[in-house]
Amino acid sequence: MRFWSQDGPDESVLRALAERRLADFPRQEPSPRVRRVQLAAELEAVLSHLRAVHASYWDRDWRREHRGLGRYPERELWEAIDGFLELRDAAEPRPGATAD
Questions:
Q1: How many CB atoms lie within 10 A of CB 80?
Q2: In a 3-state reduction of DSSP, which class is residue 68?
Q3: Which residue pairs from 22-29 have beta carbons closer than 8 angstroms and sit at least 24 positions apart in sequence?
């Protein structure tokens, strides 16, 4: 949601936010081409993170750094996998979708 631009604040968005009228927020959807480009960049980043977690998973120092306060190395691995799969699914062409 955009609530600020070069023209200043979007008062209608700020009012809806203050009044907790979430359904009233204007939605901005990227074009299919822009969405594909964004997803490709995000997929590349999350895959890089997944590979880094995978490569470090059995390293004692890495495991020690990612343990504590209710967090465990297994959680880091799970989140990396989950993020990758979520973005991969989002990047898959939808049946019946047309390319622009």
A1: 19
A2: strand
A3: 25/1, 26/1, 26/2, 27/1, 28/1, 28/2
CA–CA distance, 73 with 66 (Å, rounded to integer): 5
Six token digits for residue 32: 């299919």
Alpha-carbon distance of 95 to 79, in angstroms, equals 28
Rounded Cα–Cα distance for residues 88 and 90 (Å): 5
- pLDDT tens digits along 7-62: 888 888 888 888 888 877 767 788 989 988 999 999 999 999 999 999 999 999 99
DSSP annotation of 6: T
Q: Per DSSP, what are the bridge partners of residue 5?
A: 8
Q: Where in the chain are the domains?
A: 30-93
pTM of the model: 0.65
What 93-98 contacts at long range (C-beta under 8 Å, 24+ apart), as own/partner pairs, is: 97/32, 98/32
- Find where tokens 């209608």 sit: 12
